[in-house]
Each structure stands twice: as C-alpha cells, then as structure tokens.
Amino acid sequence: MRVCDSKGFWPPVLTLLFILALAGCSRRQGYPAHWWTPVPREGSPAWEILPQEAGRGEVILSKRNELGLLSNFAATPFVFHGKRYASLEGFWQMMKYPENDEDERAKFPGLTWKWSREQVAKMTGFEAKRAGTEAERNMAKMDIGWVTFEGIKLEYKPKVPGEHYRLIVEATWEKVRQNPEVKKVLLQTGDLVLKPDHHQEQNAPAAWRYHEILAEIRAKLRQ
Hints:
- It is built from eight helices and six strands; from the N terminus they run αβββααααββααβα.
- The chain is mainly α.
- Helix 2 runs parallel beside helix 5 and helix 6 crosses helix 7.
- The protein is globular and about 60 Å long.
C-alpha cells in the first residue's frame, strides 16, 4: 500500500518511522528472526512481555523460544556447593524453606510447610515459583525478611546487593558453565540488550534482575 501526500511524497513522520524501523532491523541482522516474531496480546498472560515489545537493539528473553533457556524457570540442572538443583528457580525458592527440624521456621507454631527444602530444589518453572509463594506466606506470618543458605541468614530484599545477590550470581554462573546449550544461546545474543519476559516490581533488588546478571556473565565469557 502506498502512503503519500498530495505531491507523491511520504509525510515526514512516516519517513522518520520508516528510518527508525530500518535501523532497528539492521541491529537485528545476524540474529534469529524468530526472536522477535510477534505474538498476539489476546490470550497471553498479563505478566508476559512479548517478543515484539523489544526496543531497538534489545531482545526479550522469551520462554516461547530457545531464549527461554536463560530464564530461571528453565530445566537446566546444575551442581552448586555439592548439591544438585533442577533449575535456578528451584535453587532460589528452596532458600525460603527450613533447613532441618531445628530451623526456627520449622518450629514456629501454626505453620505448615507444604514441601521440604529438598523437594523444592528438584522443581522447575511455575511449580518452583508456586512453592516460593507458599513459603512467602509463612515468612509473612513469622514477620521475617530473610532466607538461609548453609545455615546462614541472608536478607532477602536488601537495598544494596549483598550475600543473597552474590549467591544468585554464583549459581547463575554454574548454570551457564554446566549447561553447554545455555552458554551457546547466551553467546548468540551478541551485543543485544537482554530484557526480561515478565514485568518486575519497580526498583527490584539486583538479584531479581537476572537479565543484567546474564549480560555481565556474557561480557566476561566474550573476553
């Protein structure tokens, strides 16, 4: 379809939009085109940021294609500190659960823990996320803002990145190192800006920003 003014020329606004579109396409050359394949908003979950919503030079780490391997939800098993985890999400959420019967969370009156710490470590995807949500309800009843790893309490949502953030970064490194396909896909993203596929809370702690952690890992791998 031809869009012109009375003199046969494109209006300036359309010309600018066309130039910007071409610029965006040029930034995507050399990358799989399906990373940006549009997905209908209708029927898509409200939490999802769709592939076509990426800005210039960006890519959404969508679970709808192989970029989903970079998600914390992905079934990308790894060993960390001698224990095996089915996914990064399983690792993340299991820290909210009692470590043993002497853990104060296990002894707090009136609480029920639907799963054990070991069971959550074997979970992936939304199953692990649901387990974490269940645990957060108990954390709220206890009025605590910490999780644990190897007996050490870690502030869960610190204003300044701390020990919890360090653990998440280390675990993410192991996920990449121990899963060759994850490393391959991460490096395939080249110099694209990595963006999450879900809406995050405003001013989310650094540990939540998995896309930025992955970008830092990518930069070091490329060195």
